[in-house]
Q: What sequence folds into this?
């Protein structure tokens, strides 16, 4: 084979090798440039939350006996435990069921102050509130709420009265509070609720059957622990 022909074949072989190398390099660059799938991790939290609080029940001393001018009523304040359950529909919107029970001594004031302790009643005021939680303050998570309450009175005992019957009633509830979350599950809670509680009652004093309205309107001031499942 003559030398000119050999040089031509060598040149063509070298050119083919360079072309193949360039094509492979372009293919590799194309693969490296392809977008990589993003791995996204979402923190999934349970929608359920529970709280346990120590609750101060501070009543409003107001009320009257129908037909008795100048009559008034006052009520004792108490400290009781409270348990509530929350369900979060979104990170901001939740519903809360509030459970607890307390009692009140009922005392006559004004023109019936001589009666002293008229009686005592226990009451169970389960409340359901719809809340808005503010989530842009980090671990500090305040909220506001409003809802409805149904109070049931039980274990009623007359004192200076012959008999006493406080009637079950509905009432609105307003709420404001905050959680300080220590971690994803545990937190410290402070909460204030106002229940507009004004039940009617029947009472018998000295054989006289009377009726009236008790305006307790208690403030429920509580602090305790929060657990998010």
A:
């Amino acid at each position: 084979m003559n030398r000119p022909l050999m040089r031509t074949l060598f040149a063509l072989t070298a050119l083919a090798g360079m072309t193949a190398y360039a094509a492979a390099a372009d293919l590799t660059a194309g693969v490296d440039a392809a977008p990589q799938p993003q791995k996204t991790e979402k923190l999934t939290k349970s929608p359920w939350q529970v709280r346990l609080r120590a609750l101060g029940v501070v009543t409003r001393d107001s009320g009257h006996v129908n037909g008795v001018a100048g009559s008034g009523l006052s009520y004792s304040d108490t400290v009781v435990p409270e348990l509530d359950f929350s369900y979060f529909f979104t990170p901001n919107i939740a519903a809360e069921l509030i459970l607890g029970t307390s009692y009140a001594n009922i005392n006559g004031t004004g023109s019936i102050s001589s009666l002293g302790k008229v009686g005592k009643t226990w009451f169970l005021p389960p409340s359901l509130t719809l809340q808005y939680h503010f989530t842009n303050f980090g671990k500090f998570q305040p909220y506001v709420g409003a809802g409805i309450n149904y109070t049931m009175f039980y274990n009623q005992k007359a004192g200076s009265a012959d008999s006493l019957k406080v009637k079950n009633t509905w009432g609105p509830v307003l709420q404001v509070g905050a959680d300080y979350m220590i971690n994803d599950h545990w937190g410290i809670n402070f909460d204030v609720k106002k229940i507009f509680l004004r039940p009617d009652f029947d009472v018998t004093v000295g054989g006289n059957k009377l009726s009236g309205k008790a305006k307790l309107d208690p403030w429920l001031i509580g602090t305790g622990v929060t657990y998010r499942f």
